[in-house]
Amino acid sequence: MTAPEKPAPQAPRPDQRLAKRVAEMVPCSRREAEQYIAGGWVRVDGQVVEEPQFRVLNQQVVLDKNASLMAPTSVTLLLHKPPGYDAADDAGDAAPAPARAAQPPRRSARQLLTAEHHAGTDAADIPLLKRHFAGLTAPLPLETGAGGLLVFTQDWRVARKLIEDAGVIEHELIVEIEGEIAPDTLLRLNQGLSSDGHPLPRVKVSINSTAEGKSKLRFAVKGSHPGLIAYLCERVGLKILSMKRIRIGRVLLSTLPIGQWRYLQAHERF
Prior knowledge:
Blueprint (H helix, E strand, L loop, with lengths): L15 E2 H8 L4 H9 L3 E3 L2 E2 L6 E2 L4 E3 L12 E6 L3 E2 L10 H6 L4 E2 L38 E7 L2 H9 L5 E9 L4 H9 L2 E2 L2 E2 L3 E9 L2 E9 L5 H8 L4 E9 L2 E2 L8 E3 L7
Parallel strand pairs: 7-8, 9-15
Antiparallel strand pairs: 1-4, 2-3, 2-5, 6-9, 6-17, 10-14, 10-15, 11-12, 13-14, 15-16
Helix pairs in contact: 1-2
């Protein structure tokens, strides 16, 4: 009985992993090379590559002169959510299968967090990296039908502040209603309403503008209370046409285009 022939050894690949090339260039350990790459410090033919397993052959590989092995900084993204996009983390799985089959697919606001939707007016000096879209949480909910400022963060310090200080952080919203608001109705909203004998969170309401059978009201409320403003308006007979959150604490939506996002700048605080 003849022994089976051994397969011919494969010829070595002419290319190599990017991590290996960087380790030889610096020089440094393979682990350190992977940290440089994951941190966005390595360019291949002028383009940032964040995957250590990326294969290179004759391309130009450059390590940024400011490269650091420190842990990458966590980022916070501010999105101008359009109405109709779900802010929930599990937007695609919120309804059971039979219900999802009978309803139009829900659009998640997360799908707008891409390089294509990055605002060209972003003033933050932060290079856009793929890892900035991973591990994001949305601590402050916003109704699907509402638009405006929505926060996504990787930073546990930002998330903790938004959750632990939720009761004292003020939210400002512009609510467009049908017709004009009567002075006594405006007074009722500002004096506070109750439900089943329990006082509802207090809001500050003022008239922002009135034109063509519509009015815009400015609501300020401390704490994130999804559904609260809609409930208050219903209680006093106001029909809401649209709602937009324009401020969370000291962070403004400002001129951020709808459907686009920007980085929270280093000096900004909620």
